[in-house]
Amino acid sequence: HMEQQQAAFGKQQEKIAHLQKFIDRFKAKASKAKQAQSRVKALERMEKVAPLLAEADFTFEFKEPGNIPNPMLSISNASFGYRMEDAAPRTILRGVNRSVLAGQRIGILGANGQGKSTLVKTIAREMGAIAGTVTEGKGLNIGYFAQQELDVLRPQDTPLEHMVRMARDLGAAAKEPTGEQALRGFLGSFNFNGDMVKQAVGTMSGGEKARLVLAMMVWQRPNLLLLDEPTNHLDLATREALAMALNEFEGTLMLVSHDRALLRSVCDEFWMVGRGAVTDFDGDLDDYQRYLLDEAKRQREEAKEAVRKTASDAAAPAIAIPAPAPAPVAPLQVPTVERTEASAGAGRDQRRLGAQERQQRAEQEKPLKREIARIDERLSAIGTEKAGLEQRLAQRLPAAEIADVGKRLKALAAEVERLEERWLALSDQLETLAA
Ligand SMILES: Nc1ncnc2c1ncn2[C@@H]1O[C@H](COP(=O)(O)OP(=O)(O)O)[C@@H](O)[C@H]1O
Ligand SMILES: [Mg+2]
After folding, report:
1. Which ligand is nearest to the CA of 87?
2. Which residue, 267, 179, 170, is CA-closest to 227?
């Protein structure tokens, strides 16, 4: 019992020491940098990482990636998309002109279905560009991590067998020791201990498989990481370990994620994928939240417009073909009928009904609006508390206190996320009422 407690204490101390080292390293790095801006960025990043580390069950790190070509990649006049059998290719992105330079940390933003995965898959060589060129720097070594990558695992094989095969396939290109003991040790650093290295992958959970794929990627020491929504299938501990490792990663990084906390902690610049193009995103991540809201609204309106159009088209021919509803939308608008003398009375009734409906709607809106106001208030209170905590973090604090502040910041971030989600749902409901 005592021993257990002591072990837990020791582990915590170890973690705090690691955290302190990490912060010192970042501070040293930041003070070497000329621009004050990068110092601010480093501090911001540190603030995000402190809570992650304080609670992490295990950690891993990417090894130094060695030489990094610069530019790593240049894309010119390219179109990306899918080649279809017996049909014209389906182009998703056009006019892509981008370079990826050594050391860049790029967050890829964009609403669902806009082509983020298409972009990343093409860069990862999963498919070719439809037009234009993608030129790779000499020595480019890509590590790609995405949902479908879990399919590369062989269900009958064990983690150790996967590692052995990968080591063999890489041959002389391997940068890590390839002996079985070394591979076991490496797997251990990813929480594959004891019997687990000998367990068939097919019997493992999604999170465990994802952890194995991640381990295999790290082992190859990539200098360009392409991560497409990496946290979706990771358990909490691995997610935090990944966030930590990404922070320390010295290579180049492109990350697609909906996790704003992760984007904020890991990326310095952002690309926006939307409406068929890839552009710079100049705003911050709060602007991005607003953008997503606007985009969702625009898409809803487009869907509504499409329904309206099919409704009025359908009014003309004798046989109306039911249109597939693109999304949950407002009820069909009945084409207005020109009012005649005879229908004037009915019009008055309709107007009265309209007033009643408006009254009813206002009643329905009230609680929604009230809750939105409450959320806004809470968000602004959180903002104030967060600013205070961040200021404290910027000072020299005892490590234990840093961990406390970090934990609180993390709790606040989680609350903000919940509130924002609720806020979105409420504004959605409001809009549906107004439609
Ligand atoms: N294998 C495929 N064949 C044809 N079209 C595809 C394929 N995969 C995705 N798409 C289409 O490409 C568009 C962009 O998808 P995707 O890159 O997955 O978007 P995002 O990652 O931004 O959500 C979508 O309209 C999607 O339907
Ligand atoms: Mg995607």
Report:
1. 1
2. 267
More confident position, 73 or 362:
73
Structure tokens at 103: 């050391």
Residue 245 CB partners (closer than 8 Å, separation 6+): 59, 60, 61, 62, 218
Contact between 386 and 412 under an 8 Å Cβ cutoff? The reply is yes
The residue-averaged pLDDT of 289-303 equals 78
Nearest CA to ligand 1 atom 14: 115
Q: What's the rounded mean pLDDT across residues 216-224?
A: 92
| Cβ(52) – ligand 1 distance below 6 Å | no
The torsion angles phi and psi of 75, rounded to 5 degrees, stand at -115, 125
* Residue type, position 298, single letter: R
pLDDT tier at 186, thresholds 50, 70, 90: very high
Q: Which tokens sit at 8? A: 């837990």
Please write the tens of the pLDDT for every residue from 118-135: 999 999 999 999 999 999
Q: How far is CA 132 from the centre of its chain?
A: 28
| Distance of CA 38 from the midpoint of ligand 1 (Å) | 35
Whether the Cβ atoms of residue 209 and residue 150 lie closer than 8 Å to each other: yes
- Strand-pairing partners, residue 131, are 79
406 lines ligand 1 (CB under 6 A): no
Q: Is 158 in the pocket of ligand 1 (CB under 6 A)?
A: no
Does ligand 1 lie within 6 Å of residue 121's CB atom?
no
Task: List the one residue out of 432, 325, 322, 417 whose CA is nearest residue 378.
Answer: 417
Per-residue pLDDT, 142 = 94
The yes/no answer on whether domain 73-291 falls in CATH 3.40.50.300 is yes
* Residues in a beta bridge with 67: none
Cα separation of 117 and 98, whole Å?
Answer: 16
Domain boundaries, the chain: 2-55, 73-291
- For residue 304, give every residue at least 6 positions away whose Cβ sits within 8 Å of its Cβ, in sequence order, or none: 329, 330, 435
Report the C-alpha gap between 141 and 223 in whole angstroms.
5
